[in-house]
Design a protein that fits this description.
The structure is a homodimer of 325-residue chains.
Chain A lengths: L4 H6 L3 H14 L5 H12 L5 H12 L6 H24 L4 E2 L2 E2 L1 H4 L2 H21 L3 H24 L7 H26 L6 H22 L5 H4 L5 H4 L5 H9 L2 H13 L5 H10 L2 H20 L6 H15 L3
Antiparallel strand pairs in A: 1-2
Helix pairs in contact in A: 2-5, 3-7, 4-5, 4-9, 4-17, 5-7, 5-9, 8-9, 9-10, 10-16, 13-14, 13-16, 14-15, 16-17
């Protein structure tokens, strides 16, 4: 079956999605013109808004009918996501994101750092308005873990001895944790405690699969399909799963080339490293791991009632996996 | 009367201050070594810890006897303050703060941005543990305003037409707002709603005076007494009150020199600008404004019971003013 994003994922929550989109724009209010300009720029540059869609679907999958509060939660999730992207682009010195100039490139690093801070604060401010202490605790702990994941990634840069376990900690923090907040947050807000764990597990495994797939595409894709260049991770000396797995499966000269490429960064040996990643079976291993994570995500959903909303969440996980098949 | 910081300000809350200091160190916990290293570095590089002291004094001045929660609040305030300093140093590309290498200089901008994010998140996480929705709302709104003040400052850089009103908005956000959170937060946490406004007003006016004094010293002091160099603000083209006031009191060539110095930044005309700031009466005006703000701060305290704690808050405002007398 071919999965269509609009029809098979977005459609069941399309009207709530529109309300969410309106709320994002209303939620960004400031008397400071530069805050408004930068915030609008980065929020409008958004992608498919996967996280808020997941949040809305999770609410409906829990049996929630009134999504008024959940559309706000979904908007907050997207705002938090945008804030992390703004800071990521400063950290990575990126000039483009999804084909548009980044905030740091359009304005400067200073503006990007401070408007990112505003967006983090504003997300919390809107979250406080939802008046739910369990939700606040989940988010305040979660955002700490997201920042820690990002720092762990920085700490692991240029470290060829990074283990798969550390890699999993990094991607859990930098990617999966926000997906978890999006789905578990909906269950908390609906008072459906029995669905907190299944929805968190779904999102956590989905996020892991999503990031592993992203890291595979850095060695197999091109700018046109992904919005980033092949070899970006290698350039920065990031020990992602394709390289960790290649190191586990090679020896001698090949292993040394991969180790050295992580340690020094740069794309001097890019073609050679790609060839090693492919011939060593590393990509096969990564695909296997992404498939396992996707299956674990689907399995976690099994305890939820079988509704079009649960099916849409399943479709989202399957569609993500299709990117590498 | 000569005011001694330790004896006349710190002494009434010395034991609570020690508990606060312990809690800061305990509050910074992370499994990620780099998060710990950077956080410890920046928190230990702290100054006089004026904000947490003000928070503890405000609690006692409200009549609070059990400061267990307030020592945590005071620690959170200092952590938030540290987070803003870490990002400020990235924004200002500072290499030294209080004579010690900054986080961005010791590690790099990336690390400083992300550990700053961690400290913001961790502050909220600890704040949520205090389990007080009014306090959370005050802080979530307040941190938005702090970020907005910082962006407004950036937006006003190199703008010779910046008004005194805009200057006051900037310093309220970047400086006074956190002082307000420190004192009003104590009243909220103690459920002493009648003292919220007086304590907020005290801290707001104190913060304004404090920042105006800081901005005066940028044209009259040297690195030894202040930890920053004379002319730093001019270098960055910041339209602070000494320059805004000089522009209001000069015409012709002098006025043009000041306007141009704001527009371009740099210290090419530093000596000439200092001379204009002094001869135009701008410094006198700034001293008058700082004195007025200090008096307004003291007056706001008058409705609180006359205790050694209120007196210590008064001493703090007077001591700050002494820096320019």
């Amino acid at each position: 079956m071919t999965i269509d994003f609009k029809q098979d994922i977005l459609a069941p929550v399309a009207s709530d999605f529109a309300a969410m989109d309106t709320f994002i724009n209303e939620g960004i209010t400031s008397k400071v013109a530069l805050v408004m300009a930068v915030s609008k720029h980065v929020v409008e540059a958004g992608g498919k808004r996967m996280r808020p869609i997941m949040c809305l679907l999770a609410a409906k999958a829990c049996g929630e009918e009134n999504l008024e509060k959940h559309t706000k939660l979904a908007a907050i999730i997207e705002m938090l996501h945008t804030a992390t992207l703004v800071h990521d682009d400063v950290v990575d010195e990126s000039g483009l994101r999804r084909g548009r100039p980044t905030a740091n490139a359009t304005w400067n690093n200073q503006t990007a750092v401070l408007v990112g801070d505003f967006l983090i604060s504003r997300s919390f401010d809107l979250l406080v308005d939802l008046d739910n202490m369990s939700l606040l605790k989940d988010f305040s702990t979660g955002t700490c873990e997201i920042a820690e994941g990002e720092v762990l990634q920085l700490q692991s840069q240029h470290q060829p001895d990074t283990t798969e376990e550390t890699y999993l900690s990094i991607i859990h923090g930098k990617t999966s944790r926000l997906f978890e907040l999006a789905t578990e947050g909906s269950a908390i807000l609906s008072g459906k405690d029995q669905f907190r764990e299944p929805l968190r597990k779904y999102a956590g495994h989905f996020g892991n699969a999503f990031q592993i797939i992203d890291d595979i595409l850095d060695y197999t894709s091109d700018a046109e399909t992904l919005g980033k260049n092949i070899g970006d991770d290698l350039m920065e000396g990031k020990p992602t799963l394709p390289l960790i797995s290649a190191l586990a499966n090679t020896s001698g000269e090949e292993r040394e080339i991969v180790r050295k490429s992580i340690a020094t960064g740069g794309t001097e040996n890019l073609e050679r490293v790609i060839s090693i990643v492919q011939s060593s079976g590393a990509l096969d291993y990564c695909r296997k791991r992404a498939t396992e994570e996707t299956e674990a995500a689907l399995q976690a959903l099994a305890v939820l009632p079988n509704t079009p909303y649960r099916q849409a969440l399943e479709n989202l996980a399957k569609l993500a996996l299709n990117r590498i098949q």
